[in-house]
Structure formats: structure tokens, C-alpha cells
What we know:
Largest sheet: 3 strands, antiparallel
Radius of gyration: 35 Å
Order of helices and strands: HHHHHHHEEEHHHHHHHHHHHHHHH
Helix content: over 70%
Structural class: mainly alpha
Number of helices: 22
Shape: globular
Distance between the termini: 61 Å
Strand order of the largest sheet: 1-2-3
Number of strands: 3
Amino acid sequence: MKNTLARLLRRGTKGGQPAESTPEALEEAGDGPAVTAKSSSAAATAPRTRFGAWLGRPMTSFHLIIAVAALLTTLGLTMVLSASGVRSYDDDGSAWVIFGRQVLWTIVGLFACYLALRLPVRFMRRMAFSGFALTMAMLVLVLIPGIGKEANGSRGWFVIAGFSMQPSELTKIAFAIWGAHLLAARRMERATLREMLIPLVPAAVIALALIVAQPDLGQTVSMGIILLGLLWYAGLPLRVFLSSLLAAIVAAAILAVSAGYRSDRVRSWLDPSQDTQDSGYQAKQAKFALANGGIFGDGLGQGTAKWNYLPNAHNDFIFAIIGEELGLVGALGLLGLFGLFAYTGMRIARRSADPFLRLLTATTTMWVIGQSFINVGYVIGLLPVTGIQLPLISAGGTSSATTLLMIGMMANAARHEPEAVAALRAGRDDRMNRMLRLPLPEPYTPTRVEALRDRLRGRPQPAKPQRAANRKAPAADRRHSRSEGNSQVGGRHHGGAQRHSGQRHASTGHGRAKGRALEGQRYG
């Protein structure tokens, strides 16, 4: 080996030229394949390592959820402005009215998002039931004529100073928070299956009945998604989840055919060519808009479907306008943003130490992604039209504000990840937290029930079967020695009686020694 290296060095230094570290020379020296393999693998994994290091940073989840929410909100406002101008001008004489309302509700939602970022987790859990009870009272009030306003065949809005508010949106948030608090607390208490289901499922059924009474199929489906998410991520048995899913499907099918316009939508979905000028007109125009967009689209603001060809172009069918004006590239980009949102939400849930935040974040992620899937599904014709909006994209004031509120809670959960709490409380500077002037997050501390359970779990358990066996053993020895002594006393053998007495003392001493050993094992 040394001779080979010396020969290579002499060959390379002839004529004053330095030796070249070529792969052939290194391979001849015996280290070539290893060195080249290491260099190539290092060059290939360098970007991957940098990306993995960025993902492993403590505040990555917080930055991701804020960035995705900002991109979706900006894209939603842009597309609402593009899709609502014609409808707004026809109704109010100005192309900015619908967009102006959406901007105002977005500001309200951003304010609610900021408040959710600053809320302590204990305060959210303490006010969970009170908030849900308040929203249930609002669902009852909105059904009273003169208090609730009817629009599009549904009495589900409060109108205050020209602004409409849908209480069912608030009910979904309150139910998600209260359900996550209830299931997390009872899961830690190791409650029975009945104790976990009885308060949750009846409350959900009452809320669903009040929403159906409006009637509002879209909000009913959204509420069902939240209930299924809570049951799934709480780790309840699979039979409970499957039975709940089956009940939700049956209830949705009954609601779909119970009203005339809903059954017409289902029939037009099953047979698109049946009534293309009435019940199937909207779905047909949405497909035309997507087809006109092609790969790269007609350009922002250049679509034609919004010129009263596609009803509700700024609301339920805004995805068709995105496909027409931004093309397949823009539509896939939007779906990619929702995919990144799903990844970020599940990442926060997986890294959270608090079971309440873990359950709330996972359920919220499933709710937003479920609504997005249903909206895109009926726009492209895979599902019947249900009226569910595209979160943060469609024009809907209450929906956008409540979604931003839930995203604020998700960002709050991201700040309460153990690594993020340790980094922020150790004084690590984070520009986003400094700009928003957020308080330091509190580390997760178990409740009294959880702490008591951990202490009981950590205490050594007594060896009950061994102690019972040791009790039986001296008794058997005593009976055996007594019978032996009696037989020998009956034969007037005094020496046998002395031996019996010695055996009895020995067995008793042996039992006491075993008892002391067990006590030592019990108390450590």
C-alpha cells in the first residue's frame, strides 16, 4: 500500500506538476471506490439534508401554517374580486360591493385569528362548553320568524346593520373545541366507551337537527365531518366510527331526496343529460368553464362564465372560475396549497404533547380538507351539488372568518409544540413572534387526574399471587407438622414430639422471612 502511494506521488511530481487525485489513481491506491462513493452521496444528500434540517426547526410548523393561510386568503380575495364584479354590478350598481364585504369579513377573521393566537389553552378548555351552549341558543333563535332571515329557502342567517351572519358556522367551531376537550379529558381518565359517547353524540344530534330544520344540507355535512373526525382521532373503536359513518351516509341520503330541489340535483348528477336547462344547468356550465381554461387559462379577469352564464360563480362554483382563468396549472396549484395545509395540520397534531390540541388540530384539518374535497368534487362532477363553500376561497363572510379563527388556534397549537416552547422560552429570537408581539407559550402540564394516574402507574405493584401462595404454604406446613406430631404423640414417642416442635418453629420462621422479603419488594 505504501509503495503504491509513493510510486503515484513520484509519477505525479515529475516535471514539477503536482499529482492529480483522479478516481483512477485513488482506485489504484485502494481507496478510490470508497472516496468517490462518499463524495457522490454527500453531493446528492446535501440539499436533502438542508431541507430536513429546515423541517426539523422548532418553529417550522408555525411558519408553515401562517404562510399557507396567507396564500389561500390572498388567492381567495383575488378570485372573489374577479368572479363577483358582474353579479355585484347587476345587484348594487357597483362592481366592488361583494368584494368589499369579503374584505371586511376577512379583517374580522384576521382579528379573530390573532386573538386565537394569544388565547391560553386552559382558557379555551374552560370556556368550551359555555361557547357551545351559546351557539346552540343561537341556532334556536335563528329559526324564529322575525329574528332569523330566510334566503335561498333556508332560514339560517342573522342580519345586523346590513351584514349577515350564519350561526351554524359558529356552532361547528364551538362543537369542535368542546368535543376535543371532552374526549381528551375522558380519554385521560380512562372512561368507558359509553361515558365518552353519551355527552358528545346526543349534543351533535341536537345540533344537526336544528341545522336540518333551517334546512341547510351543506352545514349538516360539515357538522358530520367534524363529528367523524373527533371519533376517529380520539382512538375510539373502529366499529363506533364505521357505525357513525354509515349513519351519516344514510342521513345524508334521506336529506338529499327529502326536498324537491335536492332530489333534482341528485338525479341530474346521476344523469347529466336529463335536464341541462334546469337542475343540471349549473354543473354543465361549470364543466364548460373548466374546459375553456385549458392548461394555462384565459388570464386573470378574462373568463366568460362569470358573465351570468354560471350561477354563484363567486361562491359555490369559484373553483370553476379558477380553472377557467388560471387553467389547469392554477387549479393544481390551489390543490397543492390545500395538500400543504393538510400536511402542516397533521404535523402539528403529531408533534403536540397536549391531547386536547392534538385532537382539535387533527379534527380542524379534516374539516377544512373535507369541505375542499366536496366542493371541488361537485364542481368537476364527481359528487352531487351540496352548496359547501371552498374554505378561504369562496365569497362567504362568516365562513372565511370562522376558518381564519380555527387556523389561529392551529397556529397557537404549533407554538405549543414542546420544541417550540423550549426554543421560545430559552430566548431564541423568532421574527414572526416578535412582529406579532405574541406572549411566551406555556409548557404542557398534565391535569391533576393525569398526574395522579402517572404516580399510580409509576408505583411498584405488590406481588399478590406470590403473597397468597406464601400464606397457603405456612398453613400447609402447619397442618402437615400437626398431623405428623399427632401421629407420633399417639405412639408415645417424646422425641418425635420434640422434632415436630422444631419443624414448626423452622417453618414459621421461614414464612416470616418470606413475608419480610415481600414487604421489602412492595415498598422498595
